[in-house]
Amino acid sequence: MKFTAQQIAGILEGDIEGNPDIEVSKLSKIEEGIKGSLTFLANPKYTSYIYSTKASITIVNKTFKPEHDISTTLIKVEDAYKSFSKLLEYYNQVKLNKQGIEQPSFISESATLGTDVYVGAFTYLGDNVRIGNNVKIFPNTYIGDNVTIGNDTIVFSGAKIYSESIIGNNCVINSGAIIGADGFGFVPDENGEYSKVPQIGNVIIEDYVDIGAATTIDRATLGSTIIRKGVKLDNQIQIAHNVEIGKNTVIAAQTGIAGSSKIGENCQIGGQVGIAGHITIGNNVKVQAQSGIGRHVKDNEVLQGSPSFNYGDWNKSYVYFKNLPKIVKTINDLEKKVDANN
């Protein structure tokens, strides 16, 4: 796929200095630019590379004025970084803009599909599935009975969406994600054997949610597991039954959230955090990586450690943690001196 400088400038509302007809078909770092590639200059630390880059087109700020001869065609914009990000988004939309139904695939006669839908090969759509407009479902995907998927959502290869799940608009579900598997519900009997508790609830994912690869979101025992609008989930996260995550919260990889816990809005949770069941975490909470949360958390707290406590207190305590053997030795030596004097 090729674009001319004129086409790119039109998308970015930028001004061209150089050849408007020059074409690019790939992206590159400015220091690694080659002929036929597009790059950008936003950080002044990289300014020297614009005089040596072989990239055909470079996006720069309007304030940039070359001090030496350059061979690259410039597209001048208000903010080079934001414009390059906008271009990446546009490129991604073009790249993913597939339509049609590939074969072999199975689509139940009772399923309904919107306009401009793409269904990749070896995909299964069960009974009463409802797919919105401009949805892209990539190959080897399973979508169970009575699932609803809103407009402009992308489901990448190998994702599994169990029955009754509800997915909103403009969501992204990455490969290997599993939505709506049974929650971890078992009851021991008098012999110590476990009986499974039926999980008859569902999962609700609101609009503009991103779900990372191999992340699992369990269906509720009763009611719904709910992921609110704008939540961003990294890869390999486990969300148990009846959890609720508030809007615009972001969670990094390998975090586990036990059943029936409620997480507030605009929280930031680091990687490998463990959150116990049946607790409530307030709004705007920040949890550092590898922390363990076993209690209710108020709004605006910043936590670290396992079990976690106030971030500032944790940093102060760490000074003593790492010197603990020396501190113990000092105390022992002092005790010996006291005993000797007595």
TrEMBL record:
Keywords: Acyltransferase, Lipid A biosynthesis, Lipid biosynthesis, Lipid metabolism, Repeat, Transferase
Active site as annotated: H241 (proton acceptor)
Catalytic activity: a UDP-3-O-[(3R)-3-hydroxyacyl]-alpha-D-glucosamine + a (3R)-hydroxyacyl-[ACP] = a UDP-2-N,3-O-bis[(3R)-3-hydroxyacyl]-alpha-D-glucosamine + holo-[ACP] + H(+)
Keyword Lipoprotein (UniProt): no
GO molecular function: UDP-3-O-[(3R)-3-hydroxyacyl]-glucosamine N-acyltransferase activity
Subunit structure: Homotrimer.
Stated name of the protein: UDP-3-O-acylglucosamine N-acyltransferase
Organism: Psychroserpens ponticola
Organism taxonomic ancestry: Bacteria, Pseudomonadati, Bacteroidota, Flavobacteriia, Flavobacteriales
